[in-house]
Amino acid sequence: MPGTAEAILEVSGLVKHYPLTRGIVFRKQVGAVKAVDGVDFSLAAGETLGIVGESGCGKSTVARLLVHLERPTAGAIRYRGEDISRLSGRALKAVRRDIQMVFQDPYTSLNPRMTVGDIIGEPYEIHPEAAPKGDRRRRVRELLDVVGLNPEYINRYPHQFSGGQRQRIGIARGLALRPRVIVADEPVSALDVSVQAQVVNLLERLQSEFGLAYVFIAHDLSIVRHISDRVGVMYLGRIVETGTDTEIYEHPTHPYTQALLSAVPVPDPGARDRRDRIILSGDVPSPADPPSGCPFRTRCWKAQVRCATEVPRLAVPEEFARRGGPAAHPSACHFAAERRVVPPAGEPPAAG
Asked: Residue 215 in contact with residue 231, Cβ under 8 Å?
């Protein structure tokens, strides 16, 4: 499995806080939005790490930090052993050749005034050493063919393509510099279901052909399971559970993961009727004013006094570690090993 290989990308203690200010002339910071609040994970060469969670949990902020579209408030992002979170100038430019991004919206991520050939070939203008000037047109045609588009489309404009075709163009642009890591931020969420499958299959084929490593960010758990080797579940700026796709989907230990999975549609009506549907009470807390202790405690049916005072570590629960098996994977819950009856829909958690 790729996850057993040496890590190509390591994230430790990653934090991104956006200051909240008051005043017009003399601006004063009065707080911060804690979009990412201490994230740790690693990515091996050729592996796909899926990151899932509700909207607003910080997934897209992590993506922007990985490709250096934003600088972290704290923490480290190590690529092949080097901390790239504070790089700038030529050093940053060199790293960006190896870490590329596929954006969420294929309708706004492509310049409508540029032809497809210019869009895909633009990375060569920024990194001229990547391809001789006289060879770029040929390479663009090859990239179009690689992603399943007719090379003769090279002079067309984005408005002449469907959403799925535009996303293929975005993927071709991401491949232009032959990167080792691609950060895909909700790459299929704006597409029809039938087109989503085509794009996901394309990403898997390209991974096999080019040995790519993916950080695949999405809120659709079924898609993430299909493409990922390992999965990290995010809630309110933190990863609350991580493991292989089998560990997360068949043996979830964090209450939030269990609630997410209980909402996934099941095609078999019998199986759907037999399972427990977990309805979480309340809304997701504001990242500008998160709860003390465990960030999930205000919606959790397992919550106790300890949860309000102590932030749980992302670690393998001791009871599961002793027994071993698929439940023995990291989970940020004080009571991950406890089985407690799910409260009826609408009933508040035991402790707030």
From this structure: no
**145 Cβ contact list (under 8 Å, min separation 6):** 151
Q: What kind of architecture, by CATH, is found in domain 2-235?
A: 3-Layer(aba) Sandwich (3.40)
Structure tokens belonging to residue 205: 């084929």
State pLDDT tens for residues 153-180. Answer: 999 999 999 999 999 999 999 999 999 9
Phi, psi for residue 301 in degrees, rounded to 5: -80, -10
- Give the type of residue at 115: T
Domain ranges for the chain: 2-235, 267-352
Place of tokens 């799925």: 164
Alpha carbon distance 280, 256 (integer Å): 9
Q: Return the HEC string of the chain.
A: CHHHCCEEEEEEEEEEEEEEEECCCCCEEEEEEEEEEEEEEEEECCCEEEEECCCCCCHHHHHHHHCCCCCCCEEEEEECCEECCCCCHHHHHHHHHHEEEECCCCCCCCCCCCCHHHHHHHHHHHCHHHCCHHHHHHHHHHHHHHCCCCHHHHHCCHHHCCHHHHHHHHHHHHHCCCCCEEEEECCCCCCCHHHHHHHHHHHHHHHHHHCCEEEEECCCHHHHHHHCCEEEEEECCEEEEEEEHHHHHHCCCCHHHHHHHHCCCCCCHHHHHHCCCCCCCCCCCCCCCCCCCCCCHHHCCCCCHHHHHCCCCCECCHHHHHHCCCCCCCECCCCCCCCCCCCCCCCCCCCC
**How confident is the model over 277-322, as pLDDT tens digits?**
788 888 889 999 999 999 999 999 999 999 999 999 999 998 899 8
Q: Are 98 and 79 in contact (CB under 8 A)?
A: yes
pLDDT given for residue 267 in this prediction: 62
What count of residues does the chain have?
Answer: 352
Amino acid of residue 244: T
pTM (2 decimals)?
0.90
Which of 200, 175, 174 is CA-nearest to residue 186? Answer: 200
Token pair, residue 2, equals: 């790729």
